Amino acid sequence: MAFSQRHLLGIEPLSQSDITAILDLADQYAEKGRGTVKHGDALAGLTQINMFFENSTRTQASFELAGKRLGADVMNMAMQTSSVKKGETLIDTALTLNAMHPDLLVVRHPHSGAVNLLAEKVNCAVLNAGDGKHEHPTQALLDALTIRRAKGRLHRLNIAICGDISHSRVARSNLILLGKMENRVKLVGPSTLMPSGAAEWGVEVYDDMVEGLKDADVVMMLRLQRERMDGGFIPSEREYYHRYGLDAEKLSHAKDDAIVMHPGPMNRGVEIDGTIADDINRSVIQEQVEMGVAVRMAAMDLLARNLMVRRADKGEVYV
Amino acid sequence: MKMLLENAMLIDPENSEVQPGAVLVENGRIREVWQGAAPNGTDAPRIDCRGKYLAPGIVDIGVKTGEPGERHKESIRTAGAAAAAGGVTTMITRPDTLPALDTPETLAFVKRRGAEVSPVRMLPMAALTKGREGREMTEIGFLMDAGAVAFTDCDAVVTDTKVLGRAMTYARSLGALIIAHPQEPGLSNGAAVTSGKFASLRGLPAVSPMAERIGLDRDLALVEMTGASYHADCLSTAGALPALIRAKAAGLDVTAGVSIHHLTLNEFDVGDYRTFFKVKPPLRAETDRMAIVAAVADGTIDVISSFHTPQDEESKRLPYEAAASGAVALETLLPAAMRLYHSGDLTLPQLFRAMALNPAKRLGLDSGRLTAGAPADLILFDPDAPFVLDRFTLRSKSKNTPFDGMRMEGKVLKTIVGGEIVYDRDTA
Predict the structure, then answer these.
(1) DSSP B353
(2) Where does the pLDDT of residue A77 fall: very low under 50, low under 70, confident under 90, or very high at 90 and above?
(3) Residue B81 contacts residue B110 (beta carbons within 8 Å)
(4) Digit-coded pLDDT (tens) for B66-119
(5) Mean pLDDT of B404-425
(6) Contacts (Cβ under 8 Å, ≥6 apart) of B302
(7) H or E, element range at B164
(8) How many CB atoms lie within 10 A of CB B368?
(9) Other beta carbons within 10 Å of A234
(10) Helices and strands in chain A, H and E counts
(11) Whole-number percent of chain A with pLDDT over 70
(12) Are B167 and B129 within 8 A, CB to CB?
């Protein structure tokens, strides 16, 4: 098991063995999470700061719980009500926090690349919890773990990612990860929500759900942001649901044992039919949430180990 | 004041020649040009050029100086020093200052500052509309009297076609040149990069290259309607070129330019959100870059500029979307242009036609030539001298160059303006 990274800024820098290392450890944490004693001490004595420059309930809670289960001191900073409002730049905020000697910094930011920028300025491990339309690596990892547990493997699967690809960091991280693990990835969505150049990514692009879902092992639905529903990108919510919402009829074109995924929060009746989302034989949406905690525990554990090794090697001094 | 520059390789953009020769400068002008050795008998002090290249000084359309309003980013003094060190003998400055240069009074202030503190010539452009807001035209006549050499709202596109059409009609009656930034703002608003595979993977807001063609098509239709003199400041896409070629063939008074960055860099250079590569329009695909280089070679694109845009560290050390656009380039224009020479894409006469002769001609200046009678605005440079650029050695106040840390070739040895040496590497 080899995990070589200093930060987790995206899936793009990860190798196959990095991904496998995280997933293998996450499997162990998932088992532990189902037991009575969920607590460990891998991060005991370490400080984890969650900086969310964009609203989040689920991801932030998941990171917080993951840190606490490993014994870290976890601090949540709601950046929208903080000094950022007073005009402080991202870099100054980062340097201020850095002076508090955190060991793990979990960052979500509305601008693509903002977490990369921040990571250059601090000497702890940085985890990207979503930056703009760029990446959301822990989401892709938890999706991968969910798939691997449901399908018994994470290669040579036929996977359809459906909906608003263009604005989705989840889609980007997922298609990079699934591509790295040698799966057949299909992007399905209206052409107005398909990023330009998508066809050059080594994926197949469809604007028809029936064609796109054909023979799929995994159907990943994406959330359609409310503000994109009217007029700008699609004509209306109901037309979107009719053409791209996942219902039993459309799902019937996938394989009989295809699983259905959604990163949440769901818009029932927009991108997914409620009965599909609740179908325990098809939907793994609840398991995705469970795997989220496990994957974040694993990622933070591995990053903390590398951080300790680096500090020991270099005798790194805080500034 | 006389000087004899001998043992030089003379770059003559008018005749597309490079040959050994000598130049006699007297009273601020080129008195004589000889091929081969200089004759004996002149009493002028001799400067031995040691086989290095002597060319007309660069005439750079579109320099931003930061005065008035942004002197913390660049002053006319520091821009002038950078220009002298970079071989730019005439800066044509932009009116996108704070406030915009839209009255004869502010223009006169800038012109006076230029005369006082800049070692190289400085000629200001004025805004085309008041406040660069695209609603009312400026006092084009008064501004010309005050010394405006062209009229432009820079990157602010005049979206109201009627306003632009009227300004063109009025400008035509005065013989004023309009410079515009062809762009369809409906498509380009908020964009940070060119749309495509790279932009989508980086998750950055992107503009289709088609936005430039749409903007140019509209502007050229208005030129056809009004008969105005028009220069597109920076064409960067292959898709815009056919419209330009058609307009020129139809005899419209149209020229076009490109920035040195769009000739030497492409969208992939942005890499991991490197904001020093954020320019406007955004860097393009390699196929576009190659098409634009070819268009400079065949004369479709007339002018190469630096689009020198100083930005302080605070404006650039931000997430890519939020960071300011622009790059300083007065001191890197020549070495960057030498990349195109060393790669075999453009010859030295082609480069100096685009950097000196054509911009001077377009603005009605008699510089940009290596001919007897022309102003003695000259640069002596070594196109092969290698160096690694350290941005903190730049004379500009702002250090936002995309070429930081890159290996470059081409050093300016001497810059001469009006017969005076304003920069000498030996003593600098």
Answers:
(1) I
(2) confident
(3) no
(4) 999 999 999 999 999 999 999 999 999 999 999 999 999 999 999 999 999 999
(5) 97
(6) B255, B256, B257, B354, B358, B359, B362
(7) helix B161-174
(8) 29
(9) 20
(10) 11, 9
(11) 95
(12) yes
What is the count of residue pairs from A and B with beta carbons less than 8 Å apart?
71
Q: Give the three-state DSSP class for B104.
A: helix
Name which of B15, B111, B120 is nearest B376 in CA terms: B120
Minimal Cβ distance to B203: which of A90, A169, A197? A169
Q: Which residues have CB under 8 Å from B251's CB, separation 6+?
A: none
Q: Which residue type occupies B80?
A: G
**Exposed e or buried b for every residue in A173-205, given b needs 16+ CB within 10 A?**
bbbbbbbbbebbbbbbbbeebbbbbbeebebbb
Q: Which residues of B touch A (CB under 8 A)?
A: 195-204, 206, 208, 272-273, 314, 317-322
Which residues of A are less than 8 Å from B199 in CB distance?
196-197
Contact state of A113 with B320 under an 8 Å Cβ cutoff: yes
pTM of the model: 0.92
Q: Which residues of A touch B200 (CB under 8 A)?
A: 166, 172, 195-198, 201
Distance from CA of B382 to the nearest CA of A (A): 38
Chain B residue with minimum CA distance to A115? B319
Query: DSSP characters for B259-324?
Result: EHHHHH--GGGGTTT-GGG--SSPP--HHHHHHHHHHHHTTSS-EEE--B----HHHHSS-TTTSP
Closest CB to B322: pick one of A111, A169, A197. Answer: A111
Q: Which of B198, B200, B319 sits opposite A109 (nearest CB)?
A: B319
Task: Give me the residue from B197, B204, B317 closest to A112, CB to CB.
Answer: B204
Provide the ipTM. 0.86
